[in-house]
Amino acid sequence: MAKELKVDGRMKVGTLKKNFKEIFNVGIRVYKGQRFADEDATLASIRAESAKGGDIAIHGATKVGNVEKMFKDAMGIKIQIEDKAGELADNDLTLSKVGEEKTEPHTTGEPDTKKSPDKEKKGCFIATATLGSASHPYCENLRQFRDRILINGKKGDLFILQYYRWSPSFAGLIERSDFLRCISYYLVIKPSVFIAKLALKKGENKKTFL
Question: The pTM is what?
Fold first, then answer.
């Protein structure tokens, strides 16, 4: 049976996110201006003032880039599609394809200290929720710190595994609260980025840094 989701202005942001997850198995970021939209807000209440509004039907065979364009053109709303790792999905993939992509969890007792493609694909959940975009320069700083330093030894690798186990839940809370985003920005993201930049600048590897 073909996957389809009908969207209208009366739908709430939280309902849209839930439906996207249930039907297409993908995440969706919904914005009001430059910030994440409140989950209790209706789509009609967050669209651009110049937008006429209208109903749209999303299909699993629709490409990510076209879905984002449909929301922008028909409803005046900026959205972004996430893959399973919390990163922005490839615009040329269909929703069904993004939802089918598999990630292999690490299940052995000992942490795997070798760099793997799966880890490189995973995003900075908390940083993305705080900053509003996985393409923010701070997110890139943290990814470089992970890939060039943390991932190269046992303690850093163990930290990465625990981070990806627990951070999505915290990221979900941060995404829904302006207050938590502010706290996270000043108490978590900025100090973390400072440490990451310092370590990368000194060229220290993970074995000497931790």
Answer: 0.53
